[in-house]
Design goal:
This protein is mainly α and 159 residues long. 68% of the residues lie in helices and 0% in strands.
Length: 159
């Protein structure tokens, strides 16, 4: 058995808000197709799937992946942190191992694009991010991404 990661407990209000934000996104349909419906969280995070389902409010595997890939929930912009930077980075690294760099970055891209709006072209950003991960490593890339997003939200808010 692999290492068990304890995920934060989400309140019903947080789960409902997250669900409302992502249920209608066209981009998530494509991400779901790429990611698959039934393997990521189950095989990556815990030996007991019921533990994950309970903590994430009985959400589907693809919904759980969307939540865990979303840097906004690490406290970006005006949004409160519901997962620590360290835990988001740790889970991100495990997701990259499980689903691959491109699929993970696609999920992250859709999250960022939704909140920032004016964002670089998808394939260009994903290719650039893949190269950066290979150059500096996953953890450093994810840490830098959070810092960059916090700065971008600060600049966006103040202009």
């Amino acid at each position: 058995m692999g290492k068990t990661i304890k995920l934060p407990k989400y309140s019903e209000e947080e789960i409902k808000k997250i669900e409302e934000e992502f249920d209608t996104e066209e981009g998530w349909v494509k991400a779901d197709e790429i990611l698959g419906k039934d393997r990521v969280v189950k095989s990556t995070f815990v030996s007991d799937y019921d533990q994950v389902a309970e903590k994430l409010g009985e959400r589907s595997i693809s919904e759980q992946v969307k939540i865990l890939c979303n840097p906004i929930y690490a406290g970006i912009g005006p949004y409160p942190s519901i997962i620590s930077d360290e835990k988001w980075i740790e889970v991100g690294a495990k997701l990259i191992e499980e689903i691959g760099i491109k699929e993970y970055l696609l999920n992250v891209f859709y999250c960022i694009e939704k909140y920032l709006g004016d964002f670089p072209e998808k394939e260009k950003w994903i290719t650039s991010a893949e190269d950066k991960i290979k150059e500096i490593g996953v953890e450093k890339f994810l840490r830098n991404l959070l810092a960059t997003l916090r700065e971008a939200f600060y600049d966006f808010k103040n202009h």
